[in-house]
Amino acid sequence: MGKKGKKKFRIRHMVLLLFAIYICSTIYSQRNMMKELEIEKNNTEEEIEKLKSEISEINIEIQNKDSLEFVEKIAREEFRMLKPREIIYIDKNKNKNPFLRKDNN
Question: Which Pfam families does the entry mention (predicted)?
């Protein structure tokens, strides 16, 4: 092999080496992209499950909206309504007693 043969051989090796480096970098970047997409997919699936549970809870509320218990619950919680002759007792000492506070351990 002469100088021209060795020069062509080196050029071919350089081209193959550059091609191999390009392929490796492409594979590495795609692997990273796949990991990111997998994480995003898992987060989205978790959000979907949360939304499905919220939807089912809302559907149950919709089904029960005409029930007497549901109407009474809304009237008591949102509008602070009472039944006739019903008296609510408020313990003023409850907040003063340190053993009943939730923030104390």
Answer: DivIC
Distances (CA, A) of 16 to 10, 19, 21, 58: 10, 5, 9, 62
| pLDDT tens, residue by residue, 86-105 | 887 777 777 665 555 555 44
**For the chain, first and last CA: distance in Å?**
88
Helix (H, G, I), strand (E, B) or coil at 105: coil
- All residue ranges of the chain with pLDDT < 50 are 104-105
φ, ψ for residue 102, nearest 5 deg: -80, -25
Nearest-angstrom CA–CA distance, 53 and 50 = 5
